Amino acid sequence: MAALRARASAWWAGSILGRHLLVALLGLVVVVVVLESSSDFRNLQLASMAYLGIAAGGLTVLTGLNGQISLGHGALMAIGAYTTALLLDDREASTPLPLVVLAAVVVTLLVGIAVGAAAARLHGPYLAGATLALAVAVPGIALYFKEQLGGEQGLRVVLPDIPAWVLDLAFFVTGQDLTRSRYVAYLAWVTLVITFVLLANLSRSRVGRRWRAVRDDEVAAELAGVHLGRARVSAFVVSAAAAGAAGAMMAVTVRLAAPSGFTLTLSLTLLSAVVLGGLGSLAGALIGAALLTFLPQVVTDLGVDAGLSDIRAAELAPLVYGVVMVLVILLAPAGIVGTVRTALVKRRLRRSAVAQTGGAATTDPTSPATPATDPATDPATTTSKGSTT
User: Fold this and answer.
1) Closest CA to 236 of 128, 335, 103, 363
2) Which helix H or strand E contains 256, and what residues bound it?
3) Among the listed residues 208, 88, 75, 204, the one whose alpha carbon sits nearest the alpha carbon of residue 155
4) Residue 4: what pLDDT?
């Protein structure tokens, strides 16, 4: 048993891809349980959380790992959404839905290459300003080419019929008939799981280490042989591809691709989700997406229960979200996940220091019976603390 446990521990520590696939499989099991026990309205909310999580995951790779601030991810989502709408304009469309999503990702990726190459020379607020211009300009393109892109009304997205094998598989696994809203939720969450596995593996690979090197110290990274422009462009392209997948899922969920859905507010909302959850953490991106999805409704319901009108209760939601944002920035500067992770590391180090000092006091049989050494005055403990901080 001990040898088997040791092998399992070694596999868990050494196989990054296997670890991510196992976590993804467990996540899919949780998704099935939650979606099958939720109503159609809740399934659509969970689908909204999924596409926001996909976009926030791509943005946290760009901002958290590579240090580039983007205010134009809403525009990149719009490109993916309009690509999906053009390919799903009627029920007779023969293109399979996975190929539609793949096409949206490829088109957005190509746009990301162009924008990333142009923005590779920019830093800090200059890059934010360039992506801000992208967020403002892209919705206007739909208004200019209104005959092809629907103008202010947008393009209607027609979801194809659910394949028969999907209906049979869903009934075999769950014992229930698959509704269209649940089908959309499954599509969004499967896309999120696949995207997060790819992003997690990239962040732990040599490419991810280059991104971190450029973020931490550009001069040192360049001296180490890292091409700064390529690292920035590759991070932007990966993030844009994730935004394209999120836009495709948003179009399928909302059944519409219109300029009003991709304003600057969406880009700022995604950035706030990344900051709330924790920069550089995919779990933090998912937590931020959950707050964006469910916090407004919870606050609105509480306001209605407190006696406010529907309009005033809806106006209360942005205020509460802003207060939560300020509190997280003040009390948890590393975000929710970053702060929890730091607290767990400090707790583990504190326990290790206490165990080391306790063992040193009891292993010497010739030493007098004295109480355990105070960690604050013990030189060994002080050295250990200094090396870890």
Assistant:
1) 128
2) strand 256-257
3) 88
4) 60
In this structure, the chain runs to a length of 389
| Residue indicated by tokens 């205020």 | 319
61 close to 239: Cβ distance less than 8 angstroms: yes
> Tokens for 328?
């997280």
Q: How far apart are CA 318 and CA 291, in angstroms?
A: 12
In this structure, the number of other CB atoms found within 10 A of the CB of residue 29 comes to 10
DSSP, res 374:
P
SS3 labels along 87-101: HCCCCCCCCCHHHHH
Residue 376 DSSP symbol: T
How far is 88 from 353, CA to CA, in rounded Å?
61
What is the per-residue burial (b if ≥16 Cβ within 10 Å, else e) of 307-329? Answer: eeeeeebbebbeebbeeeeeebe
Taking alpha carbons only, the member of 231, 23, 194 closest to residue 116 is 231
All residue ranges of the chain with pLDDT < 50 are 362-389
Handedness of CA 166, 168, 169, 171 (dihedral sign): positive
HEC per residue, 334-350: CHHHHHHHHHHHHHHHH
